[in-house]
Automatic annotation (TrEMBL):
SUPFAM superfamilies: Pseudouridine synthase (SSF55120). It comes from Nicotiana tabacum (Common tobacco). One of its GO terms (cellular component) is mitochondrion. This is RNA pseudouridine synthase 4, mitochondrial isoform X3. GO terms for biological process: pseudouridine synthesis.
């Protein structure tokens, strides 16, 4: 029984597995870490997609022409090794407890094309974040690109980040409440996770003591793109590390300018925020209806600008520069992620989602 359970767990990502401790004081199921050991009496909760054996067929949603067209409309770039999507806000990247539809599941259904393998995730974006999402089309490309994104996440020294050529570069656009004191700068502040409400929720925050076990090195470059007399500022954010909620916390707690729509880290600023009416709301009504008709997942893509009462998160991965892995593979130059330093790069650009474009238009008028 234990051997079968281990086989099942090894066949899925650990983040989808939950453990309920045998300790009477700790009954809420918690996520299982990759190297976590089990105790006698612990119960393991697996996703509903898991049957008795890993080879069992997983229950699937029927294919839909509308869903396929929607997924294909997100495609920014495709070559023999990767597919790049412009992820819409509100659609989870990966499945899990309480998530019915996710991009990895949808890509496996609608974006295999002539390949026998389904596209694989090599990095993630928050559910409410939008923008460039890279997926590997083969096991080899996914493995190498995953190592590239992982290196970005686990880099630990400012000197290393500044001295070596960056194989991966990402630039986000964000609309924030208020305006930073400086027009540009480098944020280097460690972050860590704190558990709240007796383990029911968690939050990322600035760690004053870098010796804390949960403290992680986090660096972000920023510059002001434009500001408005209405109290908003557009920022370009370049994360040099890849920590959870890094940009959101750096904006809110370091710059003092929380991202619009980020109610987790900027709820106080939103309480004081005055509703901004838009003179273009009638003009945009027809476009909003069309967006809703082309939205098979009920993401409300036509809503959420600063002219709405409850704006959506205004954080978008707009540009990414990464190695042309397909070209490198053709030239037999790839052995590991380190070999990609001298490979020709691809620059990807993702248009703003509709709610951020409407906010841009509103502040520009």
């Amino acid at each position: 029984m234990l051997k079968a359970l281990i086989i099942i767990i090894m066949g899925m990502k650990a983040r989808k597995v939950r453990r309920e401790s045998s300790d009477v004081e700790e009954q809420r199921p918690k996520r299982v870490a990759a190297k976590e050991s089990m105790n006698i009496g612990d119960r393991i909760f697996l996703p509903i997609t898991v049957q008795k054996f890993p080879s069992d067929k997983v229950e699937d949603y029927p294919s839909s022409e509308e869903e396929m067209k929607f997924l294909h409309s997100l495609e920014l770039y495709k070559d023999p090794e990767i597919i790049v999507l412009n992820k819409p806000p509100g659609l989870p990247v990966q499945g899990g407890i309480g998530i019915k539809r996710s991009l990895d599941e949808l890509a496996a259904k609608y974006m295999k094309y002539e390949y026998s393998e389904a596209p694989r995730l090599v990095h993630r974006l928050d559910r409410d974040c939008s923008g460039i999402l890279v997926m590997g089309r083969t096991q080899l490309s996914a493995s190498v690109l995953h190592s590239v994104f992982r290196e970005k996440t686990f880099g630990t020294q400012t000197e290393d980040l500044e001295s070596k050529k960056r194989v991966l570069q990402k630039r986000y656009w964000a609309l924030v409440i208020g305006c930073p004191r400086r027009s540009k700068g480098l944020i280097s502040v460690p972050l860590g996770k704190v558990v709240l409400d007796n383990g029911k929720s968690e939050r990322i925050t600035i760690m004053s003591d870098v010796r804390e076990p949960s403290a992680q090195f986090a660096v972000t470059e920023y510059r002001i793109i434009g500001s408005s007399e209405k109290g908003y500022t557009w920022l370009e954010l370049s994360p040099l590390t890849g920590r959870k909620h890094q940009l959101r916390v750096h904006c809110a707690e370091v710059l003092g300018t929380p991202i619009v729509g980020d109610y987790k880290y900027g709820w106080q600023a939103h309480r004081k925020l005055k509703h901004l009416s838009s003179s273009t709301s009638i003009v945009n009504l027809g476009a909003r209806i069309l967006e809703q008709e082309a939205d098979p997942f009920s993401l409300r893509l036509g809503n959420g600008s600063i002219s709405d009462k409850q704006p959506h998160l205004h954080l978008h991965c707009k540009e990414m520069v990464l190695p042309n892995f397909s070209l490198a593979l053709q030239q037999a130059r790839v052995v590991s992620g380190a070999d990609l330093v001298h490979v020709e790069s691809i620059k990807l650009v993702a248009p703003l989602p509709s709610h951020m474009q409407k906010s841009w238009d509103c502040l520009s008028s």
